[in-house]
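Reviewer comment 2.1 asked that we show a complete input and output for one of the modelled complexes. We chose the nicotinamide-adenine-dinucleotide case, as it is the one discussed in the main text.
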Amino acid sequence: MKVCVVGTGYVGLTTGVSLAFLGHEVTCVDLDQNKVDMLRAGKCPIYEPGMEDLLAEAAPNLSFTTSYDEGVPGADVVFVAVQTVYKRQERRPVAGPRLHRRGEQVDRADRQRQLGGRDPARVVRSA
Ligand SMILES: NC(=O)c1ccc[n+]([C@@H]2O[C@H](COP(=O)([O-])OP(=O)(O)OC[C@H]3O[C@@H](n4cnc5c(N)ncnc54)[C@H](O)[C@@H]3O)[C@@H](O)[C@H]2O)c1
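Response of the prediction step:
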């Protein structure tokens, strides 16, 4: 399967690297250029024991980018694993503007790909 993972934090990176290790073709998208540069160099930006070994083993099936247009078009499934948004006063998570914007960005890149006729599943990981 072609997989796109949006967000390379604790949830996204472990999901993406594990799926690539299992043989899926995975593109991980993150807005943080420093994280993307580290990951391209095989360095793990989060504390996750064993991740750098797995990154090396999964490397042939794995790429990292800051561009939705490189990750979303053509994907069979898109995992969204970006930070949960909290309302400042209520301290409760909301599926608010940030997550909504992520959806729009995925949709925008997705529309181009839909010209090819396929529609990917979207999986949202949010507390
Ligand atoms: N960590 C956990 O144990 C856990 C468990 C269950 C659910 N969740 C939920 O999963 C989601 C991700 O959690 P996490 O711990 O991996 O977060 P994290 O903060 O470790 O990582 C989020 C990543 O998303 C990137 N990002 C932010 N906005 C982006 C965008 N628009 N496009 C691309 N990348 C973007 C950030 O640069 C960061 O690398 C959260 O909503 C969290 O509540 C986390």
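The pocket of nicotinamide-adenine-dinucleotide is lined by residues 6-12, 29-32, 35, 81-84, 102, 125-127 (CB under 6 Å). We note this here for comparison with the apo prediction described in Section 3.2.
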